[in-house]
Amino acid sequence: MRKQVRTARVILETPEGVLLLRRAPGASFAGQWELPGGKLDGGECPRTALCRELSEETGIHLAADALLPVGRLEHSDERRVISTDVFRARVASRAPLLSDEHDAHGYAGGPLAGPLGAIADAALALAA
Q1: Which CATH architecture is the domain 3-127 placed in?
Q2: Half-sphere CA count of 109, side-chain side, radius 13 A
Q3: pTM here?
């Protein structure tokens, strides 16, 4: 039986565009661009997890009620089934303070050095 994993991601709209983060060398999926967010800790709701992840990954703090639901994506591989709740939010222009998990930030539609991750690609299409 495959492991069930819950995640949450945010389409974070800034004046520069939708914020993307690139996975750092040594991290899983190194070099891939993704939307901010991550796994839910035990007992967390998606909004709470996303606020925590956004703060940890970028230094950006949002209130849970600022996250507007977009939908849910399902993705699976041979080991797990990943369910991702996707939200949308807006922030004023501010460069993120990156965690060790990421080595660069960019914006959807701009030049990116590396591939856009499947979940980020699907989430952007879902929100279009």
Answers
A1: Alpha-Beta Complex (3.90)
A2: 10
A3: 0.87
